[in-house]
């Protein structure tokens, strides 16, 4: 993949020699680079933190903080991607090894050949941007993979793993801000009978339609609709009190019923319906989200026991 060089490139030159600073900065400026100057390693660190250059040129031998110590200090700040070209009059193996060990990407010896310097600078910046682009692509791929791991393959909702991760995160957040967290548990009524009557491929299509209706009904940013398992779904409602959660639950129940999916094997309605359990809690350090799940499960059991196709609320 060819990565174009950015139009704007900034170079930090750290050197205590006035003549070197003048010659190098003038040459690089003629090549279109913006050059930031520093006369010692300490000033160089400060200039790096302020300007965030694309590349650093640093002299190996300087007072106060030399080039090797500068590289080490930069590395300790957590910066390992920026290319560092060390300028040195030392060309022995020990000095070269020390330069690379301290964090330099490459080195150039004095007296400086400005033509070679410009070529090295351009190549190092090009390589640096290529590496950063590849890292960004890798991070994006990892994020996509993480999303797939937490996605139910049939309904494209969050799966049980995604649900567990999300409710834990929201539990911790609601505990910090002392706000209510609500959970809705839904179960498709007589779904085993539906599968037996209409066969599993139609059962899958039914679940997909139910999932889409739930997702289209629960649209607030921050709410999560998940397939909890089989024909059971869960809806996490952060910062939502009991009254608000029951309202959402009734909207979901109505939306599923309005799909008018024929279910002649149901004993409560000729169309697909759901039973819904709702629970609300203000998280504390003394409990965990399992208490909320257990309460919503009990509420769901009550909804089924009382005839199905209804919403039941229990406070955790």
From TrEMBL:
The keyword Coiled coil applies. SUPFAM superfamilies: CheY-like, Nucleotide cyclase. SMART domains: GGDEF, REC. Residues 10-125 form the Response regulatory domain. It comes from the Bacteria. Transmembrane segments: none annotated. Residues 121-151 form a coiled coil. One of its GO terms (cellular component) is plasma membrane. GO terms for biological process: cell adhesion involved in single-species biofilm formation; negative regulation of bacterial-type flagellum-dependent cell motility; phosphorelay signal transduction system. InterPro entries: CheY-like_superfamily, Diguanylate_Cyclase, GGDEF_dom, Nucleotide_cyclase, Rev_trsase/Diguanyl_cyclase, Sig_transdc_resp-reg_receiver. This is Diguanylate cyclase (GGDEF) domain-containing protein. The modification 4-aspartylphosphate is found at residue 59. Residues 179-316 form the GGDEF domain. GO terms for molecular function: diguanylate cyclase activity. PANTHER family: DIGUANYLATE CYCLASE DGCM-RELATED, REGULATORY COMPONENTS OF SENSORY TRANSDUCTION SYSTEM. Keywords: Coiled coil, Phosphoprotein. The keyword NAD does not apply. CDD domains: GGDEF (cd01949).
């Amino acid at each position: 993949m060819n990565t174009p060089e950015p139009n704007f490139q900034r170079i930090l030159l750290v050197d205590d020699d006035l003549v070197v600073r003048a010659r190098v900065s003038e040459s690089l400026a003629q090549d279109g680079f913006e050059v930031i100057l520093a006369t010692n390693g300490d000033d160089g660190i400060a200039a790096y933190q302020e300007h965030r250059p694309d590349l650093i040129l640093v002299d190996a031998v300087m007072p106060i903080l030399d080039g090797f110590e500068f590289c080490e200090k930069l590395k300790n700040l957590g910066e390992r991607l920026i290319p560092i070209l060390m300028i040195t009059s030392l060309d022995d193996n020990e000095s070269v090894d020390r330069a690379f060990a301290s964090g330099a990407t490459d080195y150039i010896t004095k007296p400086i050949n400005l033509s070679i310097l410009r070529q090295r600078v351009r190549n190092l910046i090009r390589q640096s941007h290529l590496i950063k682009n590849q890292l960004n692509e890798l991070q994006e791929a990892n994020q996509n993979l993480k999303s797939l791991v937490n996605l139910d393959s049939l309904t494209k909702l969050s799966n049980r793993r995604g649900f567990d991760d999300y409710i834990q995160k929201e539990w911790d957040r609601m505990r910090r801000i002392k706000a209510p967290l609500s959970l809705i548990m839904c179960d498709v009524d007589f779904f085993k009978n539906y599968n037996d009557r209409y066969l599993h491929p139609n059962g899958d299509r039914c679940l997909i339609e139910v999932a889409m209706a739930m997702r289209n009904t629960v649209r607030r940013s921050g709410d999560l609709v998940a397939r909890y398992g089989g024909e059971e779904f869960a809806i996490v409602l952060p910062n939502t009190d009991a009254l608000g959660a029951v309202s959402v639950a009734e909207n979901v129940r109505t939306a599923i019923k309005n799909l008018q999916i024929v279910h002649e094997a149901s004993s409560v309605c000729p169309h697909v319906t759901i039973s819904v359990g709702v629970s609300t809690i203000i998280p504390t350090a003394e409990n965990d989200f399992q208490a909320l799940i257990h309460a919503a499960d009990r509420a769901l059991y009550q909804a089924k026991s009382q005839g199905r196709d209804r919403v039941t609320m229990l406070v955790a």
